[in-house]
UniProtKB/TrEMBL annotation:
It comes from Mytilus galloprovincialis (Mediterranean mussel). This is Transposable element P transposase-like RNase H C-terminal domain-containing protein. It comes from the Eukaryota. Residues 118-149 form the Transposable element P transposase-like RNase H C-terminal domain.
Length: 191
């Protein structure tokens, strides 16, 4: 087996383990699929939590070191293109550390289990999507404009201002939705 194949399998296993640990959906999936990483978290000292903070995040540090130590003359731009962006790496670090600490805290406070799929930022994205929509073309609102939008959202109700853009969809519990389509014109009657 070539070194490249071993590295590909290692990369695949790293990402598979990461996604499985952060996508624990229900109490039975891990048992049904025979995958320990899909079992719910029940112990604050679960080895998967240590894997996420120690092994998974260390993988990116090792990746960066291997790019920096690569023989040959590469510009800084070329080396940056050989690895994930700084913003993506920082996002992974924040996500992993937050999920691990929240899981441990919940389990220490008496929760019987934690399903990591339930951690998401969709409600926050929906809320700020409403703000972006209500601001029109203003990409840089002042504090007063933001506060005015908050009052408007609280007064009218957040379901009245539906976000146009974003990667989340609003779940409405009632069939009445405000529609911005023009009303049909009535025919004119001649005298």
């Amino acid at each position: 087996m070539g070194i490249e194949l071993v590295l590909q399998q290692s990369l695949y296993a790293t990402w598979t383990n990461f996604f499985d640990c952060l996508n624990v959906r229900n109490l039975n999936e891990g048992h049904q699929k025979r995958k320990d990483n899909l079992k719910p978290f029940t112990d604050p000292n679960d080895p998967r939590l240590d894997y996420l903070t120690d092994d998974f995040l260390k993988y990116f540090d090792d990746w960066k070191q291997s790019v920096e130590a690569r023989p040959g003359e590469y510009s800084k731009t070329q080396k940056n293109q050989m690895q994930l962006s700084y913003q993506t790496l920082e996002g992974f670090r924040i996500t992993v550390r937050s999920v691990v600490e929240c899981t441990r805290l919940l389990l220490r406070k008496g929760m019987p289990f934690v399903l990591t799929e339930r951690f998401n930022q969709d409600p926050i994205e929906q809320h700020f999507g409403i703000h972006r929509t209500s601001g029109g073309c203003n990409n840089n609102p002042t504090v007063n404009q933001f506060n005015h939008a908050m009052v408007k959202i609280r007064t009218v109700g957040q379901h009245a201002i539906a976000p146009v853009r974003g990667n989340t969809k609003r779940r409405l519990n009632y069939p009445h939705v405000i529609d911005n389509n023009p009303l049909p014109k009535r025919p004119r009657h001649s005298l």
